[in-house]
Amino acid sequence: MFGSKQAKMERLEQIVALLRAHPAGLTQAEIARRLGVSEATIMRDLWLLEQRGILIAEADRRLQLYETVWQ
Question: Where are the domains of the chain?
Answer without folding.
Answer: 5-69
